[in-house]
Amino acid sequence: MIFSFNLHQIIVNQVISNLEINTRPRYEILGHVEYQYQFTSRYLKNERDLIIWLPPSYYKSKKRYPVLYVQDGQNLFNPSTAFNGNDWRIDETIQFLLDKKLIEEFIVVGIYNTPNRLDEYNLFTDAGKYYSLFLVNELKTFIDTNYRTKQNARNTGIMGSSMGGLISFQNAWVLPHVFGKAACLSNSFWVNDKMIFDFVQETVVKRKNQKIYIDCGTAEKQLIRDNKRMCAMLRRMGVDKENSVYCHFEEDGKHTEIDWANRLYKPLIFLFGRKGKTK
Q1: Per the domain annotation, does 127 fall within a domain?
Q2: CA 224, CA 204: separation in Å to the nearest integer?
Q3: 279 lies in a domain?
């Protein structure tokens, strides 16, 4: 599927310009965030930090909000915790899109990784299976209990890049009743001898109104072919009904936090776009 944004190039230019000229202090996060330090999982028998970004109206209203759960949460907001000192600047991108009335408000839950990241971010490992249980039975339960959330699948998203993209895709694929939205960037579909392709064909689960975003940069030579293959497979399987799958291949895009930051607006608009603003 080719997904076309209204005034696409204008949005691209404005987003990038906004990120480049923003004069915020280097370590200041835009908006209200709360932290949960050393959040413990009985499944994984470990702990990790969480960073929770709340939308502008959260403490001004009593309404409930969709939630986006994001892997590698330490990379999202703050260059001091991000890989190579480059964060996704997700706070600035969300605020920009809100100001332009292109998306609805939602909560972001940034899930820090652990030294066991590679195993946890792969559903084909025991750690990956436990990580999935952690996401659904521990983390989501905690967030839904302590924050005003819309708890159904239609309002619950999952996102990540690289191995984080893989585990986000895997969880959305097998748990569409939990994750009705998924943004999967520069996915590591190559792991386990590309087992994911047989897995997808063998585990077709009924999914209603689920949205799946897949992307990759053309400069990611080891990943681009597999990501294109996955998009083609989903189309052949008929998953892409009612424009439910958006595949994007970024010209000269590389496997870096900077590249993901620069195109982050695409999955956010696709998953959380206001009606009439995403096409």
Answers
A1: yes
A2: 24
A3: no
CATH code, domain carrying 108: 3.40.50.1820
Contact status, residue 158 vs residue 179, Cβ threshold 8 Å: yes
Residue 259 lies in a domain: yes
User: What domain range includes position 101?
Assistant: 8-19+30-272
Strand intervals (E) in 20-170: 32-41, 46-54, 67-71, 107-111, 156-161
8 A C-beta contact, residue 86 and residue 34: no
Predicted confidence at residue 90, as pLDDT, reads 97
Is residue 188 in a domain?
yes
Find the range with the poorest average confidence among 122-136, 171-185, 233-247. 233-247
| pLDDT tens track for 39-70 | 999 999 999 999 999 999 999 999 999 999 99
The domain tally of the chain equals 1
User: How far is Cα 87 from Cα 77, in angstroms, rounded to an integer?
Assistant: 6
The Cα-based distances of 129 to 44, 125, 134, 171, 179 in angstroms read 9, 6, 9, 10, 16
The pLDDT of 2-18, averaged and rounded, is: 53
Backbone angles phi, psi at 127, to 5 degrees: -60, -35
- Rounded to whole angstroms, the Cα distance separating 2 from 266 reads 13
**Contact assessment for residue 91 and residue 77, using Cβ atoms and an 8 Å cutoff:** yes
Residue 206 has pLDDT above 90, yes or no: no
- In the sheet that holds 32-41, the strands lie side by side as 32-41, 46-54, 107-111, 67-71, 156-161, 181-185, 211-217, 245-250
Q: What is the pTM of this model?
A: 0.91
